[in-house]
Amino acid sequence: MDANSNTGWRERSLRHVWHPCTQMKQQAELPLVPLSRGQGPWLYDMAGQRYLDAISSWWVNLFGHANARINAALVEQLATLEHAMLAGFTHAPVIELSERLAALTGEALGHCFYASDGASAVEIALKMSFHYWRNHGQTDKREFVCLRNGYHGETLGALGVTDVAIFRDAYDPLLRHAHVVASPDARDAREGESAREVAQRAADELEALLQARHGQIAALIVEPLVQCAAGMAMYDTHYLTLVRALCDRYQVHLIADEIAVGCGRTGTFFACEQAQLWPDFLTLSKGISGGYLPLSLVMTTDRIYDAFYHDETVRGFLHSHSYTGNALACRAALATLDIFRDDDVLNANRARAARLTALLAPLAAHPRVRHFRQRGMIWAFDVALDTLAEASAFARRCHAAALARGLLLRPIGNTVYLMPPYVLDDDAQTWLATQTLAALTDALEAH
User: Which residue, 21, 57, 274, 433, has fewest beta-carbon neighbours within 10 Å?
Assistant: First the structure.
């Protein structure tokens, strides 16, 4: 087989690799892209064709592929400790990472519990919330609340608080169902209604549920500011302020799922900062390791931690993963935090976001584009189609049209979004804006 041939690698992958979030039969008409390397915001296939990674490889890659500083940190860590169990042992990378993350919250969330993927972090937060109330003798508090169209992962516990039918419905008989309340999605505004008023209306629905069921509800879980899998549904910060107050009033935990929206993606390191509040639990994954290694964690308060601190073993939180607190992953995360600090990334991103938003103005004005929106380093728009049934076919056409132009996009139904790494220079931004508009035009003309 020619080492430079995409075809051979593609065939080998299809024979033995079951790819995620994929109807494998469709790969016959939408061929896999076998990658040979990455550099900065670019991915290269086996034939040397490059693709701008406009979605940060499923929202994980913050500072480009093969980042020299993260590489160097990992090489140094490899020479000392690759992994050791975190039960009964500890090590510098996990200690330093926990200290630095806690400091970023002003010690409001001073305790970190580690896992590997986002869904596992959600499971941990749900279990911790239930167990907290159990340890306090409130064993009836075992129900959860999530937002309409919310997504929190695909393990069974996480699916129980996920309201995206395509992921959930096949497994519905296996799930413990959560209460589903209105989303504050600003696109749901009635005529003359502001995004803040949509937030108030959604919070009112939540309050009605809490009034009736607060004795049985353990926690509410939300994606702060942007519900990503819901088609990048963006909402007013006022909603977070309201739900924090409601959770306090009715003694219900607030879980902030920042797996996709944390690590600077919405403009602040933690999305919750924009509402000037902290949840009871905050989950991180994806970008925290710079897109290098699987790592997730739950941050929580002294009050939660103290509820498990006891002479009785069974009152402790006995959840575990073999690779909890992996030294290499934690070292990648520390290198990622170093880049945030040393390069003043959050301020640099504000300038980068303003420029790219301006470059996208012709796309925003396209006659088929609806609800063009931006929050931090996330851009999204909806495409007007004749019927909603066309959304899946449109998403595949748009993905293929973008790849043909050297651009990695992965639309969510009729929503096209950009979530690029934080390393795009002026030329790459201009190219991204131009090619996104061209790919949209190609996809619409191909119908």
Answer: 21
